[in-house]
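Posting this for the archive.
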Amino acid sequence: MIKEAIGVGETELDALNDAKKQLGLDETADVEFEIIQRAEKKKFGLFGGSPAKVKITLKAEPTDVAEEFLRNVLDGMKLESIEIEKTEDEGAVNFNLSGEEVGYVIGRRGETLDALQYLTSLVANHTDNPYIKVTIDTGNYREKREKTLEILGRKLAFKAVKTGRKTNLEPMNPYERRIIHTSVQKVSGAISWSEGENANRHVVIGPDPKAKNVRRGGYNKGRGTRRPYNANRSEQATSVNTDRKPLNEGGTTGLYGRIDK
């Protein structure tokens, strides 16, 4: 987004300051400008003459463009009361939304929030500047969602090892699928993969066919003896291998990035 103003004044300096004022800049601000017309004094103090004209062109920062877009979308959704707090870091910007109506922005399982973040990222990066990572959050929703998915992934991974059956999860975006994959791959004896196309792509969690079932110890099949609890359960099912490298992390993939597995 480009902002520009043409200042008019008796001198080039006066015209420059007039243009700065129109853009809300201080007179001491260092800006690039173009002299459109130089001032000409009246001949004999009576005839002719013309004021100076100076043009200032400001190229808005991508983060400012993104914030303006986000504000316009929220206003278009009749959510004018939601406040936006912007925090910038090197190569990244975070927008934290607050207000009584943030529930409308989150949507079902964060789908509306994800879509809003995706569109805002497109707007912010529709420039010649280096890529900027855009994050939109509200009340630490994303952190809470990530922890929920991690717990779900581990729970279903242990279940897969115990029962030997696979479980199909609901469709998720690439970022959330990556969280599930990472969580599952830390559980020995369980694996995960993705199936489906586009919006229907989802994670499947099942037992690892390459894992060896190690029985925890024998039991006497004779009368009067009781089979130990979870006797056939894989020894690996009770362990969490934190050193195991996740197979499907997806590197630094963003919210709508690519995950091949």
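The first strand starts at residue 2 and ends at 9. Residues 214-254, 256-261 have pLDDT under 50 and may be disordered.
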